[in-house]
Amino acid sequence: MGLRFRKVFSLGGLLRLNISKTGIGVGVGPKGFGLSIGSKGIRSSVGIPGSGLSYQDTTSWKKLNESTDATAEQIDSSTSVENNVGTHPTSTVNPWKIAFGLLVGAIFIWYLTSLNQKTVIQPPASPTVAPAPNRALTSPEISEVQTLLNQKGYKAGSADGVVGPKTRLATKAYLKEKGLQPSSDLDLNFLIKLRAQ
């Protein structure tokens, strides 16, 4: 058993570029119907997707070349008989092979240019964080406020978790110095601002 190689590149939509060790080919068609032009000839296939039933018909380049040459000879001989001119040598260039070469070249150029187009990837939008709802502080949070105010040089008294006159005076002095609106109650927003500074 010999070595096999085959790679299929999707060129968008219904178009495919097939590369194998025998050559390059082009395929077109949806599931259930396909038309492939390759180095060995033209192959058409029709099937029922998912059933395993299909029909393939392959026409080799040799067969196409013979039919093209026969048609050319018929046209040439009928022209020469009508014009009483000697026979002309027929062309050995196969128009199918020229069309295939042009098609493969055009698809290859299109594929290369599509690779060169840079895709811009947008960074994901940063999630917005909803502000925490404001509420009254718990006793451990009041102790944290007292500790933070004492560390910042405001005399809030002992960190006992109870809002006393020293804690209120230290809070008002802190808010006044920072240029913030003084409030009568300690709340969660105040604790968040105090932690941040």
- Care to count the β-strands? 6
SSE string: EEEEEEHHHHH
Count of the separate structural domains: 2
Indicate the overall shape.
rod-shaped
First-residue to last-residue Cα separation: 76 Å
Major sheet: size, sense and barrel closure?
6 strands, antiparallel
Helix content, binned percent: 40-55%
* Strands side by side in the biggest sheet: 1-2-3-4-5-6
Features:
single chain; 197 residues
What does this structure look like?
With 197 residues, the protein is of the alpha+beta class. The chain is built from five helices and six strands; from the N terminus they run ββββββααααα. The protein has two domains: 1-115, no CATH class; 139-196, no CATH class. Helices cover 41% and strands 19% of the residues. A six-stranded antiparallel β-sheet has the order 1-2-3-4-5-6.
What's the short story on this structure?
With 197 residues, the chain is of the alpha+beta class.
Topology diagram in text:
Blueprint: E1 6-10, E2 15-20, E3 23-28, E4 33-37, E5 41-48, E6 53-60, H1 61-83, H2 95-116, H3 139-151, H4 165-178, H5 188-196
Antiparallel strand pairs: 1-2, 2-3, 3-4, 4-5, 5-6
